[in-house]
Amino acid sequence: MSADTDLGAAAPAPDQSRVHGFHGDYGWDGVERLPYKATEDAPFRDVARQVLASAPDLAAELRYFEVGPGGHTTLERHGHRHAVLVLRGRGRCLVGDAVSPIAPYDLVQISPWTWHQFRADPDRPLGFLCLVNAERDRPQLPTADQMAALKRTPAVAAFLDGGSTAARPKD
């Protein structure tokens, strides 16, 4: 029996090979722009997402998020790790108890159960790729006590209240 006809092997996954052409508006051919979240219970402002790659045989999902000028993602935490690569714009992110400026090509790694949020600068969108587990747990929002604990750090309190913190100079 040849290696090509191994009867014990699982059936191959359907061929999902394709090229999704990129557009200057940060969209890709055949990739739908979706709402950021399906629920209004998670506070965010002006965020859209696109699922660029996901398949049952792929243990990860690659997504593109775009946060409009002055917008922000939900403050949340969850049990899965993820990585974010900024592609365009500038802003700030909260990871744990640290607020950091972010700009194109910055890589943000977020450990499980770490509070995090991304905010775009007021004058331009912030776009980033996000790599996560294909199967993952649901995010948790902070309780009032958890929010109070986060705000004990002055830079975090200013960030969460929409104030400014140190940012990188503009191009």
Describe this protein with a few key phrases.
disordered C terminus, globular, 2 helices, about 170 residues, 6-stranded antiparallel beta sheet, Jelly Rolls, 3-stranded antiparallel beta sheet, mainly beta
Describe the structure.
The chain has 171 residues and is mainly β. 8% of the residues lie in helices and 36% in strands. It has one domain: Jelly Rolls. The strands form three sheets. A six-stranded antiparallel β-sheet has the order 3-4-5-11-6-9, with no helix packed on it. Strands 8-7-10 form a three-stranded antiparallel β-sheet. Strand 1 and strand 2 form a beta hairpin.
Low-confidence stretches: 165-171
Instruction: Return the string of H and E elements.
Output: EEEEEEEEEEEHH
The whole-angstrom Rg is 19 Å
Number of self-contained structural domains: 1
Task: Estimate what percentage of residues fall within beta strands.
Answer: 35-45%
Structural class: mainly beta
CATH architecture: Sandwich
CATH class: Mainly Beta
State the total count of DSSP E strands.
11
Q: So what's the overall shape?
A: globular
Helix content: under 10%
Name of the CATH homologous superfamily: Jelly Rolls
First-last Cα distance:
63 Å
CATH topology: Jelly Rolls
| Order of strands in the sheet with most strands | 3-4-5-11-6-9
Count of alpha and pi helical runs: 2
**Mean pLDDT rating:** 82
Q: For the report, how would you describe the main beta sheet?
A: 6 strands, antiparallel
